[in-house]
Amino acid sequence: MENIKAYVQQHKDRFINELIELLKIPSVSADTAYSQDVIDTAEAVKESLTKAGCDYVETCDTPGYPIIYGEKIIDPNLPTVLVYGHYDVQPPDPLELWTSPPFEPVIKTTDIHPDGAIFARGACDDKGQMFMHVKALEYMVQNNELPCNVKFMIEGEEEVGSASLAWFVERNQEKLKNDVILISDTGMISNQQPSITTGLRGLSYVEVEVTGPNRDLHSGLYGGAVANPINILAKMIASLHDENNHITIPGFYDKVQELSAEERAEMAKAPFSLERYKNALNIADVYGEKGYVTNERNSIRPTLDVNGIWGGYTGEGAKTVIASKAFAKISMRLVPNQEWEEITELFTKHFTSIAPAGVTVKVTPHHGGQGYVTPIDSIGYQAANKAYTETFGVPAIPVRSGGSIPIVALFEKELKSKTILMGFGLDSDAIHSPNEHFGIFNYLKGIETIPLFYKYFVELSK
Amino acid sequence: MENIKAYVQQHKDRFINELIELLKIPSVSADTAYSQDVIDTAEAVKESLTKAGCDYVETCDTPGYPIIYGEKIIDPNLPTVLVYGHYDVQPPDPLELWTSPPFEPVIKTTDIHPDGAIFARGACDDKGQMFMHVKALEYMVQNNELPCNVKFMIEGEEEVGSASLAWFVERNQEKLKNDVILISDTGMISNQQPSITTGLRGLSYVEVEVTGPNRDLHSGLYGGAVANPINILAKMIASLHDENNHITIPGFYDKVQELSAEERAEMAKAPFSLERYKNALNIADVYGEKGYVTNERNSIRPTLDVNGIWGGYTGEGAKTVIASKAFAKISMRLVPNQEWEEITELFTKHFTSIAPAGVTVKVTPHHGGQGYVTPIDSIGYQAANKAYTETFGVPAIPVRSGGSIPIVALFEKELKSKTILMGFGLDSDAIHSPNEHFGIFNYLKGIETIPLFYKYFVELSK
């Protein structure tokens, strides 16, 4: 595969422009105002797969947004790689913090990306990383170097829980049959040190509503005499962590997979500078569960975070009111062996139970997913490691990520195959934040590395 | 003054229509989007005073919204009554909870108001109650029954802290010279049982901002590893009350005027049904400071309430983000002898001190005011009581209100005169809430009662 480097160099401008076109479509799945854009993005992905060389591409209807399926079967007796990705993106707000409009991609250089990075919502998560696979297929087809069968399954609801994907996978196990699942929706340590994500956290996401009096009240006439839903919500949220920042929900930790001292020592070898971490976020200190270091708190430990809170008067000036209702969006990151539906139930039961008599509480589950850990002795992992080693010049380090790709556990359950998480993004890419970007270096390096995965996967499968 | 009843009956339709016209102008002082409307309302008030019979009316410029001053001096040797009111109103949101548009007044009957009530923002607080005084003046002038001098001072910033009023009063002590200040901006117990407010709570209103990481973060990659500003804000707010719902700010209670057992026993005589109170608000139980009953919690005790809170993702669906900032608007109701500037300082010092290392905190004082207690043996109180007794057939009961009219303490300090709070509103009028309304009975009864106050005040002053 000596040609791959040259091919990427020759076509990189087109590769970049094609991604930029895809990034211009605001496929925000969480907001129905964008629904037509989400559908338009699906169609754009479908076209790109046809152009890249799939011999069959299909828009699969679901209860939600469509799933784009594509395949190129060269020989039923050869292994099959199933590529998963998503074409939907996170909401762009707060818009005022973007230095350029989220859906008007521009290339800017940064300290970490001297060759430039594409700034746009979805540049890294996941349009950019998904599109690397489309371009890698193009290369392999154009140069007759596709060594096995390939299937693509690109969904549009990853940022809102992949409900339709679960529905689709359960109904299409034969069609999706494969030997390994390949996903680029995670990150790596740095552009000098590739890494492969071997663990993901699960997720339970709920919305809570605390209702006090049946109407907004004058805080002077009623203040101090009735339960204020905002004060109560704050009290309830605060009580979810104890003084050691352990989560207080009964049974929450019961199934948590504890790591051995050896495993934790192995993890500690990953390069990490607490100073650089704090400086990058401009915080005086880190904060988290007692007894664990930062790299453990955000990977092998379950957490509970409020993602949004609102209630009462939030406009200009002052309003002396006691709100009738207060709301919060709360998500829990889960680790292997924690069942997300069970955790959602435990949360609901506990949160409802701690409400004082003066208020009523409603908990609405949004979505969730299981945690996942992949073995590093699998053929898939070894093929990925050989590919990274060849293009980066150093072997990849296995790391546990704090993020969640809920459907990875689903794939193992329904499709009985392992997932390899070949991520090319960086923590600094600001995914889910204003000014999300994806390095040109990372984008092209991904396109260059992926075909090597196919090559080594087929070799090691023999 | 036998004519007053007849005069009110004869002109009530016009009285109602004139008030409705005033209520149509959205004079929301907290929101600059309405600034022209606030100014238009000032002009409308000015015209109404001229029409009612003031022989001098003036629009007084201030650093903020204008103050309308009007006077009718019939004899420098006679006593002078200074009427205070405000023409600005609270913001109308949440709009979706109004059964009719807040600035399109309509008359509807309710169980408490079988004769009908005017539904509109400001109907009771304070356009309706302020306008009663304008119409009472009209009656006294038309019928040559004005027994003394009268001055009007109607401001447009009461709902945002009366900053300009303080500025104005300090600079116009001679012009505002008076023997008693008359205000209708409070309530009474019921349409069968009038009451006079003898105590008001002070106010300290602040906005807090908690900043964590310098940008919104992916809650999967950072969750559990950095201080989440929303979780921290909730923790900090929760810590402001202890398990007995005492406020934990050091020094907060130091100057609180404690009532004697006798005084509390006297208060307990005011008719109050806890069941009706809970049913009216549709709450299972009340909530508040241990050791005090509802009527004490909302009147003689200081309180701390969050009036608004916001941060993170509050839109449709789910976003797994850790917000960079979280905000809250917090007000404290103060009782006599608590200095509001001092309380604001104590809050700021304490709130900043309890922030963990992972976040920074900013506290911005909005406004405040002193609490106030008026003696019931004053001529003004007795005149008011005689007036109520004559029009309602029963004497008024003195009550302490939980609300704040910050400028009452200012008047005593700057103008050296006592304020009489002749309120005609009811707790059920939903001031500061959706569907604010003011009973036709209450409006007309106020117009009928006010001239009697003038009569008895002059008689008792001889």
TrEMBL record, chains A, B:
- SUPFAM superfamilies cross-referenced by the UniProt entry: Bacterial exopeptidase dimerisation domain, Zn-dependent exopeptidases
Give its E.C. classification number.
3.4.13.-
> What Gene3D superfamilies does this protein map onto?
3.30.70.360, Zn peptidases (3.40.630.10)
- For the keyword Transferase, the answer is no
Q: Which InterPro entries match?
A: Bact_exopeptidase_dim_dom, Cyt/Met_Dipeptidase, Peptidase_M20, Peptidase_M20_dimer
GO MF terms held by the record: dipeptidase activity
**Enzymatic class:** hydrolase
A Pfam family per the record: M20_dimer
Query: The Peptidase M20 dimerisation domain covers which part of the protein?
Result: 199-357
Query: Keywords on this record?
Result: Dipeptidase, Hydrolase, Metal-binding, Protease
What PANTHER family does this protein's entry cite? Answer: BETA-ALA-HIS DIPEPTIDASE (PTHR43270), SUCCINYL-DIAMINOPIMELATE DESUCCINYLASE (PTHR43270:SF12)
Protein name from the UniProt record: Dipeptidase
Q: Which organism is it from?
A: Flavobacterium artemisiae
